[in-house]
Amino acid sequence: MLTIRNEKWLTNSMVLLRLFVGWHFLYEGIIKLYNPDWTSVGYLASAQGPFRSFFIWMTSDAMIGIADWGNKIALVFVGLTLLLGIFEKCGAIVGAVLLAMYYLAHPSFPWLTEVSVEGSYWFVNKNLIELMVCVVIYQLPTSRYFGLQRFFDKKEVLTQSN
User: Where do the TM regions start and end (predicted)?
Assistant: First the structure.
């Protein structure tokens, strides 16, 4: 059984964690949107691991535009949902799926030569850590405490009482 010594501290910590992760996603999305030359071709083409052929397929002429725009839109969506505190669970799920794709494209397996990564990792890298943060945010949502969701919840309560 988990004992929480101070629920307010936990809530505040989770809000900050949600905001920091949201900022990271939004920043990455905005930077990619404002750079007309940005493409995921290099990252996808250098993919390794068991799903390499899937990521190589995504670099085809028919798919790369969809992959690039899908990535940008997903990053901005996750960033906005987590920063604004609305549709937080949807944002956490999309974020976890996106990070899983990043991880699977370049898994931190010790038997693979690491390409396009920061540092040297054994199984766990920053994408996997942030993916787990999204899982925690999904399970411990904080938008009712700090976020736009509070206003929608109050409307629902007022509507139900009338």
Answer: 9-27, 74-102, 122-140
